[in-house]
Amino acid sequence: MTKLSIEDLAAELIRKIEAGDIGNEQGKMPSERELLAIYPVSRYTLRQALNKLSKMGWIYQMQGRGSYIRFQNNQKPAIEQGDLGFNEDLTRGEKNIRTVKASKRLVKVSEALFLPSQKQFAKDQHFIEVQRFRTLDDKPYLIERSYYIPEIVGEISETMMEGSMFQALAEEKQLTVAFIDKFIQSKPLSQEQAAFFHLEEGMPALIVRDDSYLRNGELLAFSMIHYDYRMATLYMHKKLFV
Question: Which residues are in the HTH gntR-type domain (predicted)?
Fold first, then answer.
């Protein structure tokens, strides 16, 4: 069998991913040893091809645990790699984002209003649902609804909900978010949401759905955030690979 180049191997793996012919139910790719037994390539070529797929957004790699496929509703990655953020990322640490109303409750998976894009749960799974209304410079800015995995985060205090949840989890529970998948869309505001933003019901809102993962690849939380479109600033830092 003719040896494959890095580009050829990457293309073959993408074809397998698109067809659903590779990876287990959790999206875990075969190990290096298993892939080397299938494809006539060197270990260097395999690692370079996997690295290329990671940069292109097809997979993500976890040290010591292997490579995992990014399941995103069977859609191809739109960009190679980048960092996406909003005003609170740009102003982090300046304390101008404030929580004015917050609530939490334990809910069943069937009660969740949405679910993450890459993970399935057992029917008896529970989440800690956190809803927060937050201002930017004392003006209504965002409404957040998040679901945290209780087996990972444990108890969420009232104090934690007042500021940055991720900062509190890192400082109090040593849980550090390693990467976040974000999905952007627009939907009309409900009556409650419109009242907070001082807008009319049915007007558009910028919505970000995100799934947050720890360094070991475990899902920590998944969220839906409604922004006041008049105040939200979206920026993209994109890395280009040649």
Answer: 3-72
- Name, in order, each residue with C-beta under 8 angstroms of 241's C-beta and a sequence gap of 6 or more: 52, 55, 80, 81
pLDDT bucket at 2, cuts 50 / 70 / 90: low
Q: What share of the chain is helix, strand, coil (3-state, %, to 5)?
A: 30, 35, 40
DSSP state of 137: T
The enclosing domain of 36 has a CATH number of 1.10.10.10
Has residue 105 been placed in a domain? yes
pLDDT band at 233 (very low <50, low <70, confident <90, very high): low
SS3 label, residue 176: coil
Residue 170 domain-assigned (yes or no): yes
Domain that holds residue 57: 4-67
Angle (CA) 21 79 59, round 5° = 35
Answer for the pair 59, 53: CB distance below 8 angstroms, yes or no: yes
Distance CA 227, CA 233 (A): 10
Query: What are 21-79's pLDDT values in tens digits?
Result: 898 877 889 999 999 999 989 999 999 999 888 877 788 777 677 888 876 544 454 44
Residue 238 lies in a domain: no
Q: Both 92 and 33 in a single domain? A: no
